Amino acid sequence: MTRVFIAPGTKLIGPPPGLVALPRPGEIILSPRLHQVLHGDPGLAQLLPGRERGLIGAEGLAHPDELYAYIGVSPHKLRNADVVTLFGEPYPPSPTVEKSTLGILRFTLAGVVLLPLAVFLSVCARLSAAVRVRRLAALRLLGLSAKAVQRVNAAETVAAVLLGAVLGLGIYELTNQMISRAGLPGFKWYPSDGALSVSTILVCLLGCPALAWFVGRASARKAAASPLAVRRSAVEKPLTKWGLLPLVPGLGIVVGYCVAGATGHAPRDTSVSAVLVPAAVVLIGAGLVLTLPLLSQVLARRVARSSGSLSLGLAMRRNEAEPGGALRVATGLILLVYAASLVQGVLIELDQVSRHNSPVQIYSIEIDGVTAKQQHALEGIRGVRGHAIRMSSWTELRVDSYQPVLNAVIATCNQLRESVSKVEGCVDGRPVRLLDVANGYPHDDVQPGATFRFHLWNDGHRRFQPLKVPQDVLRYRDWDDIQAMDADVLLPPSFLPAGYRPDHATLELVSDSDPATVRRVLDGIGGVDPTIAVDPYGINVTALQQIAVVRTLLAIGMVLGLIIGVAAYLVAATDRAMERKPQVTALALLGARPRTLRAAQVAQVVVPLTAGLVLAVVTGKAAESSYLVTGGGAIFWDGQGVPLLLACSLGAVAVAALGSLPLIGRRIDPELIRRD
């Protein structure tokens, strides 16, 4: 929520965009979304003091969901205010997502969406069981030239793709109109913001058909060059080991980064890592696709030799003879699981950027301008577990000599215990030196017996309070990720004379770091005084907003990838069903029972799919870990994401198994064999 406090000055100026007039003291003008939130949560009125005068127009907002308010106040209530003489000039807008984060998001979405899309297009372009390939071969045998056969296939493909592009653009436009009004978790936009640009329309209407032309020509090359080779009895070309070529260097890079992270030698050169890690991810993804047929053939040969099951033997011998058939069905699902690991790594890194890992949260508030009553109210906010006043000794502004500074905190022993991890032998009522047992030794300039002065004030009266550094040492243990008591001396509250407060000091509030408590404390601070500037140490509010957007976009990408992967699976499964019908019919005529055939069909898909999913999970987690090692965060290994990936893998196996069952029907059609 953005609040702009406005006090009238000596010169009348025009209102900001979206406003008819500036709010007077005691008036507020809200964005439509904030108006709804305020009426749904009356407690929010503490942060928005005043009576509503109107709503901000669309031209004054970045998006419909923006929480924005102009609050009119009296001039004497604004501290450290800026003088404004003009509203509405063009200003460089702050991006919704940082450029570096946007690059990560684009790369991840490319893996999540474009990899399954490439598989989908490849499957659609290589429908070996469709009548089209045999028809193209027949055209070639009837005398049509090889180039003419390729052009026929390319023209058919272009016509289908052009129709699909037009439908896709129309569906997107309708979807943009609907979703932009409903919004997505984390952000919302105006329909005009998501309107199709001319470049996008040209890419879809010209680029997609152009790509389809080349794909159509390439997919018909085999039928045009060797029409007899496309018959169902044609012998498949033997597989080569060149498919391992992309996988080996990709895994080498990933394993190298994982070893560097495990041995504590995480790379510092981000420019090199920014090239190597994406390259490794792409190489592994391509290597998975090219390696799976070879892996399926080797696995099928070994299982067929050792298995005594008729169903498993039939399935494995078919995979050995035609290793790419079953994997056309499984490749999209395997790449989807591989991409899911990358998404987890991105979310973990962004989560580390936005917050710390400490169990406590610190809020720093400048004590200048905060009254004693407000300070007491801040210390009593629900959720605050400890509080202290942090101050530094007074020094003269001299450049000719070094003057040591003493950092002190004013707190009771109970407040100290609530703020740090561990305290040993604290006694109230006397000053002591502080020593964090995790950080070594006290400051060299803070020697016992040295005298420092603190500047205090009370309603315009100022005085200096001397302090002699005590001999006694209090040992404590602060938190690892956040320093709640980073000071040299602990002073009791009685150090401050009655009515006096330290100058240039901060009030430090401590609470638990769970999001609900942090939100409750921040709301409580705003309830005490909406204009108080608070620094929630370690919380990057902008990053939190970006993560909400990134999570939503990644979720959309995962849904799109899932839809495309399932579509590729359905197309490939249908293709395989048509392709396998003659063999299944032949086996049925030879006396094989339907149960045996069903088991063989399921095993033919499930066994290589399981091997591919295991490889996808292993390589995906390795790629994720290498990404986290280069990200500079504290987390390199994400064990929590493994159960989710395994659950997705089991779901993919179940879907593939169910999709194999309809291949076996009750009716035997000998015409399938005679026609072949």
Shape: elongated
**What is the percent of helical residues?**
40-55%
The total strand number stands at 16
Strand content: 5-15%
How would a crystallographer describe the biggest sheet? 9 strands, mixed
- Secondary-structure class: alpha+beta
Number of distinct helices: 17
Report how far the terminal alpha carbons are from each other: 69 Å
**Which residues form runs of ≥5 with pLDDT under 50?**
none
What order do the strands of the largest sheet run in, or round the barrel if closed? 8-12-9-13-7-6-15-5-16
Rg measurement, Å = 34 Å
Instruction: Provide mean pLDDT, rounded.
Output: 79
Structure description:
This protein is 52% helix and 12% strand. The protein has helices at 32-40, 99-125, 131-141, 146-182, 198-219, 221-225, 244-262, 270-306, 310-321, 323-354, 372-379, 413-419, 515-528, 541-589, 594-631, 641-660, 671-675, and strands spanning 2-6, 27-30, 51-55, 68-72, 360-366, 384-392, 407-410, 422-424, 432-436, 451-458, 461-468, 473-477, 489-491, 501-502, 506-512, 534-536. It has a 9-stranded mixed sheet. A 4-stranded mixed sheet has the order 1-4-2-3. A hairpin with a 2-residue loop joins strand 10 and strand 11.
Task: Write a concise synopsis of the structure shown.
With 676 residues, the chain is α+β, with helices and mostly antiparallel strands. 52% of the residues lie in helices and 12% in strands. It is built from 17 helices and 16 strands.
